[in-house]
Structure formats: C-alpha cells, structure tokens
Amino acid sequence: VTNNIVIALGAGVVGRILPDLWVRQAQAARKRKFESQLVDALFILSSSLRAGLSMTQAFEQLEAEMSPPASQEFGLMMKAHRLGLTLEESLQRLNGRMPCDELNLITTAVLVARETGGDITHIISQLITTIRERKKLTDKVTTLTLQGRLQAYIMSALPLVFAMFIRSF
Fold first, then answer.
1. What is the rounded CA–CA span in Å between residue 104 and residue 116?
2. Cβ count within 10 A of residue 42
3. How far apart (Å, rounded) are the C-alpha atoms in residues 120 and 117?
4. Is 0.85 surpassed by the pTM of this model?
5. Signed CA dihedral, 9, 10, 15, 20: sign only
6. How far is Cα 17 from Cα 23, in angstroms, rounded to an integer?
7. Which residues of 55-66 are buried (b: 16+ CB within 10 A; e: fewer)?
8. 52-76 pLDDT, tens per residue?
C-alpha cells in the first residue's frame, strides 16, 4: 500500500504474531473461566448423584445446568460417550482439552471411585473443600508476593527513568 519495504515487513510481522497472541489469550481466558466454574460443577454433580442419578445422567444434568465454557466442555465429553467411548476415555479427553490440576484431580477421583466402588458423593464433597482451600492459598500467595513484584517492576524501570532524567539536563 505504501510502497515501503520496512512498513510491509513490520505489517507482516504484526500480522503473523498478533493472531497467535489473540488465540492464546482467548484460550487462557476460557481456561480461567472453566476453572472458576469447577466448584459449581462439582456441586451440581454431587447433588445429582445424591438424587439417585447415575454418573452419566449426572454429567448430562451438569451439561444442562452450567453455562459455557463448562457446559460446552462437558457436552463434548458426553457426546463422545454417547458415540461409543467409555466414560473413562471421555473424561481423559476432557482432561486433554482443558488441562488444569483441579480437573485432573476430579477425573482421577471419579475414575478411582468408579473402579473401587467408593462413596462418590463424599469424595466430591472432599474435592470441593480441597479446591476451595487450594484457591484460597493461591490467592493468599499472590497477594503476599504482589508487593515484591511491584518493587521489582519499579527497580527495573528506575535506571531508565534516571537515564532519561539525566539526559534531559
């Protein structure tokens, strides 16, 4: 458009990098929202199981009651299950699509409880408590390290500000 090779190269670099950054940012936002919905999903799963539904029916109820992205991800899991995959394989695929520690913990607990015949509702209640406590601990660590991170940013910028100040005189 401008017949300038530098602008064309700059636009090419921006055109190559910007979409990837946007996609990564969107995926990270979707993952954060999914992780924030996990405790509510576990409540729905637990109450459905207590009401006497099977594990498959409880996941279908979870799909119906949750909002996206949790409903979409659990919906994909249930579609795979309806198409012939076992519930275990469907859960593992869900773990692959949305990798997070809490979901891995949930998947492992559900699979172990299905194999051993444990009280799945009690296990889910313990998972809810564990995930909440873990979130509190993570938030506390983030808050406590905020001052140190802010100091690091200020100390990193200080030489540049000082050089600009000296240069202006």
1. 18
2. 19
3. 8
4. no
5. positive
6. 10
7. eeebbbbbbebb
8. 998 889 999 999 999 999 999 999 9
